[in-house]
Write a structure and sequence with these properties.
Elements (H helix, E strand, L loop, with lengths): L6 E2 L5 E7 L2 E7 L2 H16 L15 H12 L5 H13 L14 H8 L5 H17 L22 H10 L6 H8 L4 H6 L5 E2 L4 E4 L2 E4 L5 E4 L9 E4 L3 H9 L12 H15 L6 H14 L4 H8 L4 H8 L4 H19 L1
Antiparallel strand pairs: 1-2, 2-3, 4-5, 5-8, 6-7
């Protein structure tokens, strides 16, 4: 087996994964060469019979060890925010069972104990990671009963609330960030936007990166977006956004330098000032999709502008008919039957 090329982790360490005797062996080094040299030694020792590499038996593997192995294998290729989520689950969930051998864990009992410690959604996500780690380690995945995850609808601005909201954020330090979200950008895309990607002459924004937190809580810039469709050129559609961008004198570095908590807080405060539905940052992205539906923009066009790759996801989650549109539809059907009765 040829030694794979190592990848540089965000921490600066180089990493590669060997596959020996059906077992994945993680190898790290301070440099790419050191990493490959260490892998070559492990491979040679394995061939010579000096280093025995075999899959651990269930009784030799703890819940913590299989989670750590699963996370380490995916750290080079998964988003820093995804690895951060995995790490938080490993550190905060199933604390009474994390150091137990996997063949000694009463899985349903573990799930039942965790119900009171976190939300149903968090528990479902945490159990999903455990299942993936078990399967990756070649261990059986047990069946358990999970509580139903309640559908949580994210509040969004009705079409007639958008202009009062925009008026309320004029001059706000987070004005540009909020308007970008109202144009359909994700919060991570807003935080990762660089001035070199803003073309005021042609009134377009090139979205192709994002800024997210890694497992250590530090913000890192990703040069790729969530999916292929996420990389896109977005026209500057809101005149107020164009004016706000032009008003910035020093156009270097990141366009939005506020923290994500600042964006969130200012969004809610602006909603209160405007007397409109209280929404968060993601609620502004929902508002963009819902406004597009209200204005009769095709779903294909909305997908391109908002960077959605999956039609079903966008249609079910993001396209939410504004209450006035629902009322109009109800009235149209009611009027039809009234006219038929006459």
């Amino acid at each position: 087996m040829k030694i794979p090329e190592p990848r540089k982790l965000k921490s600066g360490t180089w990493f590669l994964q060997l596959r020996l005797n059906g077992v994945s062996v993680p190898v790290t080094g301070e440099t790419a060469k050191a990493c490959k040299d260490a892998a070559a030694v492990i491979k040679a020792e394995h061939r010579a019979g000096v280093r025995e590499i075999k899959r651990k038996k269930p009784q030799e593997q703890t819940l913590k060890s299989i989670l750590e192995a699963y996370i380490a294998k995916r750290e080079p290729v998964r988003s820093p925010s995804t690895i951060r989520g995995y790490t938080q689950i490993k550190e905060n969930r199933f604390k009474d069972y994390i150091d137990k051998p996997v063949d000694k864990i009463p899985w349903q009992q573990m799930i039942n104990a965790e119900v009171t410690e976190c939300s149903a959604k968090t528990l479902k996500n945490s159990w999903g990671l455990v299942c993936a780690a078990l399967a990756d380690a070649g261990l059986p995945v047990p069946k358990v009963e999970l509580a139903a995850v309640p559908v949580k609808e994210i509040p969004f601005l009705q079409p007639d609330e958008i202009k009062p909201f925009c008026e309320a954020i004029k001059g706000d330090i987070a004005e540009i960030g909020m308007l970008l979200e109202l144009q359909g950008l994700r919060r991570s895309e807003v935080l990762g936007l660089d001035w070199k990607d803003v073309d005021l002459k042609n009134k377009t924004i090139h979205v192709h990166g994002s800024r997210v937190q890694n497992k250590d809580g530090d913000f890192v810039t990703k040069n790729t977006t969530k999916n292929k469709s996420s990389s896109r050129r977005v026209p500057i559609m809101i005149p107020q956004l164009e004016d706000a961008l032009k008003a910035v004198k020093t156009r270097q570095g990141r366009v939005v330098d506020q923290a994500e908590n600042t964006l969130y807080r200012h969004t809610k405060e602006a909603c209160e000032r405007a007397g409109v539905t209280i929404v968060g940052n993601h609620g502004l992205r929902h508002s963009f999709a819902s406004l597009g539906y209200h204005l009769g923009i095709s779903e294909r066009q909305l997908m391109e502008m908002g960077g959605w790759s999956d039609f079903t996801t966008m249609h079910k989650i993001y396209i939410r008919v504004a209450s006035k549109d629902k009322e109009s539809a109800n009235n149209a059907i009611s009027d039809f039957f009234k006219n038929e009765a006459k």
